[in-house]
Write a sequence for this structure.
């Protein structure tokens, strides 16, 4: 699998599908110039860029080097036209220390980084067995760096009956059956987010649902976008890429419109929890 091509598919096709969610969360939490945001699993940086455009100081954590490279391209200070966007940092697989995280722009050596006022994890959980465990570890490292009472935003897939894409994701379960376990797709559960928050010692303080339809220019774009999520990795390991492409394409046919585009309405849920 070409990891660079997959990261580009994520950045150019799939990442934008959750823009309504990012906007809803930022509006509800009044993200702006006073916000110091830590984004866990920041992907190729679209959600960070949106927060930075509101004036927030942003720090992103991303373990995928290929997505990280694309995030750096988006967040290079010389590409921005406002000073507010220059206050951005990107680090690797673990949350940055309160001092001295690697930055996209110039930083004063040894300068103290203020405690974060908002932590986000926008990569939806609840569809892969074991995904909540990884998130719990990331939260355990991140929340000590946040202010007391700071909101932590967790995101999950909505009920399968409200997510049209669930019918396509079931292909992953069928093909990955020999490897069922961590990494295989499963239907989202109602209390997935609350359970993660509880294990991380966070206090739930509100939630919301946001419609995030998945729209693609054609079937090929839909296949590439969906496979870039990683939700089909176990299926590919159990069979091969060609077989997964074929079956996902077939599963997309009910969602194909007359003009050749693909449209799948979905609902995602977010939970706001507070650092004790």
């Amino acid at each position: 699998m070409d990891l660079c091509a997959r990261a580009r598919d994520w950045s150019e096709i799939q990442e934008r599908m959750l823009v309504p969610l990012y906007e809803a969360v930022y509006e509800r939490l009044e993200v702006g110039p006073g916000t110091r945001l830590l984004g866990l699993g920041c992907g190729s940086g679209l959600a960070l860029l949106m927060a930075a455009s509101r004036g927030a100081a942003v720090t992103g954590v991303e373990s995928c080097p290929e997505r990280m490279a694309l995030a750096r391209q988006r967040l290079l200070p010389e590409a921005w036209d406002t000073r507010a966007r220059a206050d951005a940092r990107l680090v690797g697989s673990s949350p940055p220390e309160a001092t001295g995280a690697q930055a996209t722009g110039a930083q004063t050596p040894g300068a103290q980084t203020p405690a974060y006022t908002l932590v986000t994890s926008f990569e939806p959980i609840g569809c892969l067995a074991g995904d909540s465990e990884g998130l719990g570890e990331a939260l355990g490292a991140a929340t000590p760096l946040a202010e007391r009472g700071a909101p932590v935003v967790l995101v999950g897939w909505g009920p399968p009956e409200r997510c049209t894409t669930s019918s396509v994701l079931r292909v992953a379960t069928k093909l990955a059956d020999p490897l069922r376990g961590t990494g295989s797709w499963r239907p989202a559960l109602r209390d997935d987010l609350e359970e993660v928050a509880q294990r991380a010692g966070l206090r739930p303080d509100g939630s919301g649902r946001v419609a995030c339809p998945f729209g693609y220019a054609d079937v090929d774009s839909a296949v590439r976008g969906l496979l870039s999520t990683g939700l089909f990795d176990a299926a590919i390991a159990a069979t091969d890429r060609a077989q997964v492409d074929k079956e996902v394409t077939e599963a997309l046919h009910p969602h194909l419109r007359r003009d050749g585009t693909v449209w799948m309405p979905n609902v995602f849920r977010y939970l706001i929890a507070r650092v004790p």
